[in-house]
Amino acid sequence: MARKFTPSVKLTDNDVTDESVYRQRRQFLKTLGFVGASAALSGPAQAFGLFGSDDKTPVASTQPLVFTKSAKYQTSETQTPYDKVTTYNNFYEFGTDKSDPAENAQGFKTDPWTLTIDGMVENPLTLDHGALTKRFALEERIYRMRCVEAWSMVIPWIGFELGTLIKAAKPLSSAKYVAFTTLYDPAQMPGQKSRFVGGGINYPYVEGLRLDEAMHPLTLLSVGLYGKTLPPQNGAPIRLVVPWKYGFKGIKSIVRVTLTDQQPGSTWNILAPDEYGFYANVNPHVDHPRWSQKTERRITTGGLFSTKVIPTEMFNGYQEVAPLYQGMDLKRFF
Amino acid sequence: MLLKKPLRLSRPWLLVLKTLVHLYLLGYLALTFYQAVTDQLGADPVQGLLNFTGIGTVNLLFATLTISPMARWLPCGDLMRFRRMVGLYAFAYAACHFSTYLVFELQLNFALLSSEIAKRPYILVGFSALMLLLALSITSFMAIRRKMGKRWQQLHNMVYLCLFLALLHYSWSLKTVWGDPLIYWAATLLVLYTRRQKLKNWWLSKRRKPAPVAKRAS
């Protein structure tokens, strides 16, 4: 089981300023011209503002979702605020800077959407936009997310188990892996149109899991966070969340799930196999070649002096997945 | 030449301009630290500060290196009086970059610092650039400069190596090579182009040197 974490500050949902109140307040101050000079200059650290704009990030329209709160996957850890979860994203289809996706993805069309489940299945499926949030019962789970860049967040995701979807498609016994593909639409995704914007990745973005990893009850297909549908920068309308693996395994804006008997490609593994493994399990004992993975910077509220660096746990604290890797050398299969 | 006759900056003008440069560079640094402390610098203030001070150092190194071609082209020889100051700010920004890394990312764990420098080439490259900048800053005082004589110029030519190391550190720190550093590498070529005569002379002197030795040997 994940080690219980007791924060020094105990906050409940009641302590959180309601988002609509927060936004109204901000809007009100803005109309009065009161958000001070520093706010006008803010914008995530564009040194000297040479490249890229410092414009305030627009807010995508998100809809409330109907869901239950999972009793099992709650936490007393401080959650990363909504504003930070939605403005600090690696989604190279919309730019390589972490503030780019929130700025460039707002016009992204997620309806209509088609998610296809095919390959080695008896019952190939196609989910349309409505089915993504209605076909399976949704539940909220608060998971830790550990990025390979050594920062981490605590996020209340809403979604359903990937296993439920795979079971509905009836996998053949020959299936061993699950391959995922992100939407390929250069007209909407500037990073797919230009190598410079998209970091030189060969699109579409692909990811993969072993079938037993995909069927694990922790593995989630997420359609929302903080009670509402995903904003485009977080992978709307549907994305993968595998909490014991580094964040880059959580492929965003999925259009295809294919069951196969071959180990599928994984975008970052193809690009730099010495730095990003296929398994990408969170592992404090295997350093990234350029930095240590022993600790992580937890992103919560507060400025520089409240920065918390905490030790990284094996499997990001989700010890229940350890049996999946029994007998494997996780230094080799990192 | 952009101007018909050389532009001279009088003492009061120099004073005003220098004050403005101080205000801008110190103010920007202070404001960014203030934003980091008050959580207005993006989701991860540590990363935000590292980016700001790192890119700031590179920008200031470029500024230092564009002062002498600018002084020639305008022409305005008095601009050279700003070079040392801007160079020292490049060091100040680099020092802030390093301190942010040491204090907020490594939490003052000095054992980890030395092992990271030893183990990670990209950290070593950045650290070398910082050490070079430190050497250039210490020797930037007039008294030391006079004492060093010809050696001073030789040492301060290291600023090119410093820029190269800083850019390598920047490129290496990112996940892909396709990013802003490419613009900076292009700008480096431009800066070197303005010094093509100097480079040519240096190259010729390098090639000429072994010649007399060869003659004596035969």
From TrEMBL, chain A:
Q: Which cofactor does it need?
A: Mo-molybdopterin
* Keyword match Metal-binding: yes
- Ranges for domain Oxidoreductase molybdopterin-binding: 109-268
Full protein name: Protein-methionine-sulfoxide reductase catalytic subunit MsrP
Q: Which domain of life is it from?
A: Bacteria
Q: Which family does it belong to?
A: Belongs to the MsrP family.
Its recorded reaction(s) are: L-methionyl-[protein] + a quinone + H2O = L-methionyl-(R)-S-oxide-[protein] + a quinol; L-methionyl-[protein] + a quinone + H2O = L-methionyl-(S)-S-oxide-[protein] + a quinol
- Which GO biological process annotations does it have? protein repair
From TrEMBL, chain B:
- KW Transport (keyword) present: yes
| Cofactor dependency | heme b; FMN
Q: How does it sit in the membrane?
A: Multi-pass membrane protein
Q: Which GO terms describe its cellular component?
A: plasma membrane
What residues does the Ferric oxidoreductase domain cover? 67-166
Q: Localized where? A: Cell membrane; Membrane
Quote one Gene Ontology molecular function term. Answer: FMN binding
Q: Which GO terms describe its biological process?
A: protein repair
Query: InterPro entries this protein is in?
Result: Fe3_Rdtase_TM_dom, MsrQ-like
Question: Which controlled-vocabulary keywords does the entry list?
Answer: Cell membrane, Electron transport, Flavoprotein, FMN, Heme, Iron, Membrane, Metal-binding, Transmembrane, Transmembrane helix, Transport
What's noted on cofactor binding?
Answer: Binds 1 heme b (iron(II)-protoporphyrin IX) group per subunit. Binds 1 FMN per subunit.
Question: Where does the chain cross the membrane?
Answer: 12-37, 49-74, 86-104, 124-143, 155-172, 178-194
- One Pfam family, short name: Ferric_reduct
What is its quaternary makeup?
Heterodimer of a catalytic subunit (MsrP) and a heme-binding subunit (MsrQ).
Q: What does this protein do?
A: Part of the MsrPQ system that repairs oxidized periplasmic proteins containing methionine sulfoxide residues (Met-O), using respiratory chain electrons. Thus protects these proteins from oxidative-stress damage caused by reactive species of oxygen and chlorine generated by the host defense mechanisms. MsrPQ is essential for the maintenance of envelope integrity under bleach stress, rescuing a wide series of structurally unrelated periplasmic proteins from methionine oxidation.
* Protein family (similarity comment): Belongs to the MsrQ family.
Q: What is this protein called?
A: Protein-methionine-sulfoxide reductase heme-binding subunit MsrQ
Q: Organism, per UniProt?
A: Gallaecimonas pentaromativorans
For this protein's source organism, the top of the classification is: Bacteria, Pseudomonadati, Pseudomonadota, Gammaproteobacteria, Enterobacterales
